[in-house]
Design brief:
Helix 1 packs antiparallel against helix 3 (48-61). Helices cover 33% and strands 22% of the residues. The chain has helices at residues 3-14, 23-26, 48-61, 113-119, 139-145, 152-155, 158-161, 191-194, 228-241, 254-260, 287-303, 316-327, 330-335, 351-365, 394-402, 426-429, 432-445; strands spanning 19-21, 41-43, 65-68, 85-88, 95-99, 104-108, 125-126, 162-169, 174-177, 202-210, 212-213, 217-225, 246-253, 276-284, 309-312, 339-345, 370-376, 381-387. The protein is built from 17 helices and 18 strands. The two termini are 19 Å apart. It has four domains: 3-88, Uridine Diphospho-n-acetylenolpyruvylglucosamine Reductase, domain 2, CATH 3.30.43.10; 95-213, Uridine Diphospho-n-acetylenolpyruvylglucosamine Reductase, domain 3; 217-327, Alpha-Beta Plaits, CATH 3.30.70.2190; 334-429, Alpha-Beta Plaits, CATH 3.30.70. The protein binds flavin-adenine dinucleotide. Flavin-adenine dinucleotide (FAD) binds next to strand 3, helix 5 and strand 10. Residues 35-214 form the FAD-binding PCMH-type domain. GO terms for molecular function: FAD binding; oxidoreductase activity.
């Protein structure tokens, strides 16, 4: 079907305002690490029924479709090519219901994470997934990438928050698995296939999400330490002694800390001479009791020599100041040019050796290159910021980061996904049989290969 005929069909489904074309599409924000939107047709459905009709139409026409959520992803999974159609979830942004007794909510996939978190406040409930992209990412995008973030150590990844799901398949059929129970062992859990599928298996249109009690107390500390081994011991100590309250344990290295606390940037609560800094957070239900517990557990850790210095937040302002150092990426992106960002995982016990090897490889090629490690160390997840070489050197920089994962059995993607960015390196983490079965699943759900073609797999599935 020629594009003009397709546009008319789309307008008949979603109305005039639901279809954008030409400069209105190519002039949109292309997303992280992407230069330009190449596709020039964008459809913005409002209902599952409309998504179903769009997909049936595209499938019949063999029309490639790229699903876009909040465009906060880091692996170019929403990149488009000429001739593709963008299906944006931006108008499917309704919180349909919140059930306080069952502690569940039903949402459309385009609801922004931060808005959802805010809207739960009056109910005394919370949605524990939290990440730096919260102001733009969508819950559907969080599911499609199996997002992680700051609180995985306590609550798990997005996979653990999704109870039910509605998905429009490539051919337009609507798979409704809107389960509202925590327990439901009735054969294969189909929704799990779509979680982390990066828009290659179906369009997630609605979700049933698990909610938690809203924490009342929050205690935060910043500690510094001159050995990674002690940081790993501190993590275990805090997790064990806080009796389930530990909700974040984030690491930044000296390079990251110094960059963000440099002149005119964030104030440095602790001196900047230590190799490692950890942000520790405990969420609980009783201000006084939790504060006393937090401080005594920290004091105990100090006595055991598990860190060198610490500062405990006494106010919301202190707390924001500590988290600001961890969450602000602006200065890193500014100072580290050309900027390369990585997201890997490996066992905590292997992290120090890994960081040493990556640094050694990088510095042997670019002695002046910048490198900083940060991450959700409680989950074995490291982010690496690199500013080295030129934009032409991407493959060599990537090799410095990914090759050393092999001996540790690490993963090239802890939480960001594969997209276009990491597909040449997928084989480090997934063996031939795993990759083959993944392709079989893709073939089963999307035999014509119209959904997000070219993403995840080195060869196009079609
Ligand atoms: C400052 C910052 C910090 C971040 N920190 C973290 C972090 O700590 N942890 C983490 O995991 N991520 C992090 N991210 C990355 C990003 O926010 C997540 O990957 C997020 O889940 C992407 O959601 P999105 O709606 O923006 O999806 P998009 O970027 O729009 O899309 C991502 C992928 O999901 C697919 N997709 C989107 N919506 C749907 C849908 N409804 N149905 C099917 N497929 C869909 C797309 O096709 C694409 O493949 C961060 C990003 C930023 C900007």
């Amino acid at each position: 079907m020629p594009p003009s005929a397709l546009i008319d069909e789309f307008r008949a489904i979603v109305g005039e305002g639901g279809v954008l074309t030409g400069d209105d599409v190519t002039g949109r924000y292309p997303g992280y690490f992407m230069q330009r939107v190449e596709a020039d047709i964008l459809v913005r459905p409002e209902t599952t029924e409309q998504v179903s009709q769009i997909m049936a139409l595209c499938n019949a026409a063999g029309q490639p479709v790229v699903i876009q959520g909040g465009m906060s992803g880091w692996v170019r999974a929403t990149q488009t090519r000429q001739g593709e159609v963008i299906l944006s979830l931006e108008r499917m942004n309704r919180i349909e219901s919140i059930d306080p007794a069952n502690r569940t909510a039903i949402v459309q996939a385009g609801v922004i994470l931060e808005r959802f978190q805010d809207d739960l406040e009056p109910y005394g409930l919370s949605f524990p997934l939290d990440l730096g992209g919260r102001g733009s990412c969508q819950l559907g995008g969080n599911a499609a990438t199996n997002a992680g973030g700051m609180r995985v150590i306590r609550y798990g990844m997005m996979r653990e928050q999704v109870l039910g799901m509605e998905v429009v398949l490539a051919d337009g059929r609507v798979l409704s698995s809107m389960n509202r129970m925590i327990k439901n062992n009735t054969g294969y859990d189909l929704k799990q296939l779509f979680i982390g599928s990066e828009g290659t298996l179906g369009v997630i249109t609605r979700l049933v999400l698990r909610l938690r009690e809203r924490p009342v107390s929050s205690n935060t500390a910043l500690v510094c330490c001159d050995s990674f081994d002690r940081i790993a011991k501190l993590l275990r100590h805090m997790d064990g002694a806080l009796g389930g309250l530990l909700s974040a344990f984030e690491l930044v290295d000296n390079s990251f800390y110094r960059t963000n606390t440099g002149e005119g940037r964030h104030p440095a609560p602790l001196g900047s001479d230590k190799p490692y800094y950890a942000m520790i957070e405990a969420l609980g239900s009783d201000h006084e009791r939790d504060r006393d517990l937090f401080e005594s557990v920290l004091a105990d850790a100090a006595e055991k020599g598990l860190f060198d210095d610490a500062i405990v937040a006494r106010s919301e302002k202190d707390r924001d100041a500590i988290w600001g150092i961890r969450e602000d990426l602006e200065h890193i992106v500014h100072d580290f040019q050309p900027f390369y960002a990585f997201d890997v995982s490996l066992p905590v016990g292997d992290m120090e050796a890994y960081m040493g090897e990556v640094t050694r490889r990088l510095k042997s090629i670019w002695p002046e290159g910048g490198i900083a490690f940060l991450g959700h160390v409680g989950d074995g997840n490291l982010h690496i910021a690199i500013g080295a070489g030129t934009t032409e050197d991407r493959e060599q920089v990537e090799s410095c980061v990914y090759e050393p994962l092999r001996p540790f059995g690490g993963s090239v993607s802890a939480e960001h996904g594969i997209g276009l960015e990491k597909k040449p390196w997928l084989s480090i983490t997934r063996n031939p049989l795993e990759r083959g079965l993944m392709r079989d699943i893709k073939q089963m759900f999307d035999p014509k290969g119209i959904l997000n073609p070219g993403k995840i797999f080195a060869e196009e599935a079609s």
